[in-house]
Amino acid sequence: MVREDWGQHGTAMIPQSAVIRDWIGEPPYLFAVTDTKKFNHNDRGADIEAADFIAPEKTDRIVFDIPELGSLEREDKVIDHAVVVLHPYEQRELETIRRAVEADSIGKLFVLIWSRYDMVRTWLDGLGALNLHTREARPASDPLLLSAAEMIRDHDYNGLSSGRGKDAVVQLVRAFAVEGYPVEPETWLRAYFAVGGSFRHAELIEKLVKEMKAGTRHRVKPRYRDNIVEIMREQLAAKQ
Predict the structure, then answer these.
(1) Cβ–Cβ < 8 Å for 192, 202
(2) 165: domain range?
(3) Between helices 163-178 and 143-153, what is the axis angle to 10°?
(4) How distant, in Å, are the alpha carbons of 30, 70, 79, 110, 158 from that of 106?
(5) Which residues of 98-135 are buried (b: 16+ CB within 10 A; e: fewer)?
(6) Could you give the number of structural domains in the chain?
(7) What is the pLDDT of residue 132?
(8) How far is CA 52 from CA 65, 89, 109, 124, in A?
(9) How many CB atoms lie within 10 A of CB 196?
């Protein structure tokens, strides 16, 4: 849920918080925050405000730092209780959350997003997460687009800012544009996250696609045939 939808100009925090409580279940309420030392009205007032509405009784709250989620994977542990993450933003903390989810270390996760333009929202959409405000999830990405995203992800180890990684991103976006797919960062990022892509490389994909949308002509070495989309379509059909 995006904070704007949660608050609705100060008119909806109580009913929206009730919706959140109904979904996450009984207390204690586990809040993962950017910095517990700054979890106060002066430094992280927005976090405190959200916690006050979601869990009015302080005794019902357990507050910890987002990086602590990383220890779950290392120690092969699982939190069966729902975790509420408040306003995550930095790449490092987003990656910690992603890895915890990927490792099935969290049984249930709710994220209160600061802005609808934050990349964490695109990640959640890519995973098919339920938006508690609309009670809907974004439709899954086109299977052909998911195949392209897997090809891009396969270049993660070399990086996507240059070389073969950049070549793959640029050529695939160009080829799919010819087939009518939008040159939109969100479209490609949803597919990339759906196949397990990381926030680190997602930022590079976003940069490249934004530049292409603005008209930048990137110089890349040809890695695929001109009819790569047709080839991929035939491969998908053969698997069905």
Answers:
(1) yes
(2) 143-239
(3) 170
(4) 11, 11, 5, 10, 30
(5) bbbbebebbeebbbbbbeeebbbbbbbbbbebebbbee
(6) 2
(7) 97
(8) 17, 21, 19, 24
(9) 14
Q: Can you list the pairs that 71-76 forms with residues at least 24 positions away whose Cβ atoms lie under 8 Å? A: 72/100, 72/103, 72/105, 72/106, 73/99, 73/100, 73/103, 73/105
- At which of 88, 118, 137 does a domain end? 137
Which DSSP category does 2 fall into?
B
User: Among 106, 137, 168, where does a domain finish?
Assistant: 137
Q: Mark whether 121 and 164 lie in a shared domain.
A: no
Q: What is the pTM of this model?
A: 0.94
Q: What are phi and psi of 36, to 5 degrees?
A: -65, -25
Task: Based on the fold, state whether residues 122 and 155 are members of the same structural domain.
Answer: no
How is residue 200 written in tokens? 């680190």
Asked if pLDDT for residue 229 goes beyond 90, the answer is yes
User: What was the pLDDT predicted at 239?
Assistant: 84
Alpha helix (H) residue ranges in the chain: 3-7, 13-24, 45-54, 70-74, 91-102, 119-126, 143-153, 163-178, 185-194, 199-213, 228-239
The alpha-carbon radius of gyration of the chain (Å, integer) is 20
113 touches 94 (CB < 8 A): no
